[in-house]
Amino acid sequence: MESKKVDNVCVIGLGYVGLTLAVTLAEKGLTVFGIEKNEKILGDLKKGKSHFHEKGLNELIQKTKGTTLLLSKEIPAGKAINCFIIAVSTPIDAITKLPRIDYIEKATQEIVPHLQPGQLVVLRSTIPVGATRNVVLPILQKKCSGFYLSFCPERTAEGKALEELKTLPQVVGGLDEASTDAAVELFSKISPLIVRTESLEVAEIVKLVNNSYRDMMFAYANQIALICKSLHLDAKDVIDAANLGYPRADIKLPGLVGGFCLEKDPYILMTSAKSDISLIKAAKQINENTIYHILDSIKSHVKRKPLKDVKFFISGFAFKGDPETDDLRSSQAIKLLELLKKNKANNILGHDFIVSQKQMKNLGVVPVSIEKGLKEADVAVFMNNHRSYANVNMELLAKKMKKGSLIFDGWHIFPEQLKHNDHIAYESIGFSKRVEKI
Ligand SMILES: NC(=O)c1ccc[n+]([C@@H]2O[C@H](COP(=O)([O-])OP(=O)(O)OC[C@H]3O[C@@H](n4cnc5c(N)ncnc54)[C@H](O)[C@@H]3O)[C@@H](O)[C@H]2O)c1
To answer: Which of 36, 138, 309, 362 could form a disulfide bond with 42, CB atoms 3.0-4.6 angstroms apart?
Structure first.
């Protein structure tokens, strides 16, 4: 294979996916034109500051900015670009759950005036199967021919994206052999392992299959949790015992399924399918219902007391704690907050190890320390699994809570410390220990 030149790259959309990829390529010495239309984000990036938390990211921006990383609002004219990477958002519609590909269409249209034969266009965003061929290709073909087109999904976990970009296998699918070759050439610069797929569509569906599988694994655990609770068994104990030393079980613990990708990717797979989707649909439903079970537990704990008279403490607003992030998109803590507010709760204290106090105030909660939150709350809810909870002496803090208050532990962080105390009620998904109510 004759190697294609893919050393001058233009990344369109500098969000979680585009920015981490742009700095990774720039650090490798490629010239990277980073395009971001949001002026606030772009302004901060030009000052060397990312708009989201990712370990090591600000250092890399500062290291590459102005040399190999060149930031602008629009694709610069007359530059020797030989590869465009589209990394814009593909959210789903809140009501219909259908994927929105208008950002993809717009970004593709913006490439068109710059497109020349021999250039490579890579789609990195998560899309319905067939969208590269049926949406992106026709837009590009209107102006040009002889370009290469590839789909290469992003599969990193927020919080360790910079590390995973260099270690995870990169899945590559092309419009034709030459397109696949060109994309392999590009991703070989950062990744030790390339997975060449047969077609664009195989690469597209791989991403959806990965995330829908993960969603289903949690759904299984969440359903087992409900079964265990109904039988007055502790789901964590059951799952730990089922897994221990047994080679044919790797059952997840029940938990809160959130985050931008897990929330939407199963829906994008369902939209793409032309066959039975009942299993994926049921899994999604089970995971989406988990937050209502937490609300039911809270209501059942406070009995008839209206939620407006209950003082809440929520800890862990980011959609996950490990690896740590400040991403609030599709966070179950935000969903819980909305539900509590719908139920007229208005006395809500909040804490997060990473999310800023300003962000929390914007959500309408009062930022406090864990100590203060627990001391004052009638109901405390732990909504993510940040590693720093391991340093919290919950046994001691729980004793300082009001007698009969509730801790709902959404991630099974504190069972050893709280399961057998008789001062407060302790619940998790699939476990409930009640004491005298407030
Ligand atoms: N967040 C993740 O960890 C992750 C992981 C895997 C895949 N994905 C997928 O990658 C895609 C991007 O996700 P994200 O989380 O980075 O989204 P994001 O919303 O954080 O970033 C998209 C960025 O693109 C910018 N943008 C939109 N249109 C533009 C245009 N025409 N020109 C320049 N800038 C433009 C937006 O202002 C925004 O900053 C989505 O399809 C997502 O599903 C995300």
So the answer is: 36
Would you call 304 exposed, middle or buried from its count of C-beta atoms within 10 A (0-12, 13-18, 19+)? exposed
User: For the segment 265-315, what is each residue's pLDDT rounded down to a tens digit?
Assistant: 999 999 999 999 999 999 999 999 999 999 999 999 999 899 999 999 999
Residue 56 backbone class (left: φ over 0; alpha: ψ -120 to 50; beta: rest):
left
Strand partners, 349: 313, 366
First-to-final CA distance of the chain: 72
Q: Are 175 and 137 in contact (CB under 8 A)?
A: yes
Contact (CB, 8 A) for 257 and 271: no
How far apart are alpha carbons 320 and 322 in whole angstroms? 6
- Probe target for ligand 1 pocket from 260, 269, 330, with the most ligand atoms within 8 Å of CB: 260
Taking a C-beta distance cutoff of 8 angstroms, is the pair 226, 293 a contact?
yes
Tens digits of residue pLDDT in 366-419: 999 999 999 999 999 999 999 999 999 999 999 999 999 999 999 999 999 998
Cα 101 to Cα 342: distance, rounded to the nearest angstrom: 31
Question: pTM here?
Answer: 0.95
What is the spatial distance between Cα 183 and Cα 174, in angstroms, rounded to a whole number?
Answer: 8
- For the CA of 260, the closest atom of ligand 1 is 1
Q: Please tell me the distance from the alpha carbon of residue 323 to that of residue 277, in angstroms, as a whole number.
A: 31
| DSSP-based helix, strand, coil % in the chain, nearest 5 | 45, 15, 40
Q: Which amino acid is at 125?
A: S
Q: Report residues whose beta carbon is within 6 angstroms of any ligand 1 atom.
A: 12-18, 35-38, 41, 87-90, 103, 106-107, 110, 125-126, 154, 156, 158, 260-261
Domains of the chain: 8-199 (3.40.50.720), 232-433 (3.40.50.720)
